[in-house]
Amino acid sequence: MSNADVIASRIAAWEHFATSLQPLLDEMPYLQPLHDRIEDLIGEARELDLQQEKVRTEARELTHRRQAVEREGQNLRARSFASEDPVRFGINPRVKRRRESNAAASSEPETAKSDAD
């Protein structure tokens, strides 16, 4: 269950509690402060939940913007010095790895088969 679901279910439970207390307030006036406080908490919890969701949205947007800036910076850096000596500008050259030829790779299984026989 997500945090949003948890707080929503708690607020719903508090609302049910406050609604259940309402008819009893005439008979039990000592419950009035409890009822008033739970109503205040419900309003505060809703406001905090809205603020938190707004901050989450802003954080997601900031993350996307930061990632876009990082990508653009990396692309510019790589393109700018591609023809120059990259090490001089702090860019490590890519190590070119050679792949085994298909003939060498396919001959090994055949050798293993003949040894097994």
Put the structure in a nutshell:
The protein is mainly alpha-helical and 117 residues long. It has helices at 3-21, 32-80, 102-116.
Tell me what the structure shows.
By secondary structure, the chain is mostly helical. It has a domain at 3-60. It is 71% helix and 0% strand. It has helices at 3-21, 32-80, 102-116. Helix 1 (3-21) runs antiparallel to helix 2.
- Please work out how many helical segments DSSP would assign: 3
Strands, total number: 0
Which regions have little confidence, pLDDT < 50, spanning 5+ residues?
Answer: none
Q: Estimate the helix proportion, in percent.
A: over 70%
Terminal Cα span: 58 Å
Reading the helices and strands in chain order gives HHH
Tell me the strand percentage band: under 5%
Shape type: rod-shaped
Q: Give the averaged pLDDT, no decimals.
A: 83
Keyword list:
117 residues, 0% strand
Provide the fold topology.
Elements: H1 3-21, H2 32-80, H3 102-116
Helix pairs in contact: 1-2
